[in-house]
């Protein structure tokens, strides 16, 4: 197990997860969100290739509507 920060909350997750697997493990169901690792946004096409590492700071951001 490794420790990461997800939206400011420390989580323990399995080693060698990619972003897609992390999203599934955290049970995110919202569509259309963006993911940043250590303040760098990751393209959706790279979710399966981008591995989460111990100590990573992950932000999962949902769009906000307003005016």
Describe this protein with a few key phrases.
67 residues; mainly beta; Ubiquitin-like (UB roll); 5-stranded mixed sheet; globular
Description:
With 67 residues, the protein is mostly beta strands. The protein has one domain (2-61): Ubiquitin-like (UB roll) (Roll). It is 10% helix and 33% strand. It has one helix spanning 19-25; strands at residues 2-6, 9-13, 34-37, 40-42, 57-61. Strands 2-1-5-3-4 form a five-stranded mixed β-sheet, covered by helices on one side. A hairpin with a 2-residue loop joins strand 1 (2-6) and strand 2 (9-13).
Multimer state? single chain
Return the domain count.
1
Topology as a string of helices (H) and strands (E): EEHEEE
CATH topology: Ubiquitin-like (UB roll)
Distance between the termini: 42 Å
Unreliable sequence segments: none
Could you describe the largest sheet, including whether it forms a barrel? 5 strands, mixed
Q: Kindly state the percentage of residues in helix.
A: 10-25%
Radius of gyration, rounded? Answer: 12 Å
- For the record, the CATH architecture stands as Roll
Strand content: 25-35%
Averaged pLDDT, please? Answer: 91
Shape descriptor: globular
How are the strands of the biggest sheet laid out side by side? 2-1-5-3-4
Q: Report the top-level CATH class.
A: Alpha Beta
Total of helices: 1
Q: What is the CATH H-level superfamily?
A: Beta-grasp domain
- Return the structural class: mainly beta
The total of beta strands comes to: 5
